[in-house]
């Protein structure tokens, strides 16, 4: 199994979280703790750059949806960027894309998230 890699960058009102490797029940708590530490405010938008994530199980998607639910009542949105085929299929078959904003690239997601901050 490919190890999970996590990093983040803080922008005004937006947190970019880069996730790589494989995300499943064996390491989903790592992502959960990382998101809780990285997110400064519930109103911050989160951008998950998943370009290096080769696999995401349902437990990993739960962490992302929990981040969405935590911020939704405070104006925070969650963007998924650069989905690889397997994680994209999971998002599609579960219907999670109804709540999460899916973008082709991290740059596109950041552009939308930052623009949303300016208009709020």
UniProtKB/TrEMBL annotation:
InterPro entries the UniProt entry points to: Anti-sigma_ant, STAS_dom, STAS_dom_sf
Q: Name one GO molecular function term.
A: anti-sigma factor antagonist activity
Coiled-coil blocks: none
From what superkingdom does this record's organism come? Bacteria
Q: Which residues form the STAS domain?
A: 4-113
One Pfam family of this chain: STAS
The family classification in the record reads:
Belongs to the anti-sigma-factor antagonist family.
Name of the protein described by the UniProt record:
Anti-sigma factor antagonist
Origin species: Nonomuraea dietziae
């Amino acid at each position: 199994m490919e190890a999970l890699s996590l990093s983040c960058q803080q922008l005004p009102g937006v947190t970019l979280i880069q996730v790589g490797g494989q995300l499943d029940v064996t390491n989903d708590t790592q992502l959960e703790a990382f998101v809780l530490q990285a997110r400064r405010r519930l109103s911050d938008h989160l951008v998950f750059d998943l370009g290096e994530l080769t696999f995401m199980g349902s437990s990993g998607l739960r962490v992302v949806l929990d981040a969405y639910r935590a911020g939704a009542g405070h104006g925070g949105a969650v963007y998924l960027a650069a989905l690889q085929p397997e994680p994209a299929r999971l998002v599609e078959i579960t219907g999670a894309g109804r709540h999460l904003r899916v973008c082709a690239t991290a740059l596109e997601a950041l552009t939308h998230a930052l623009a949303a901050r300016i208009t709020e």
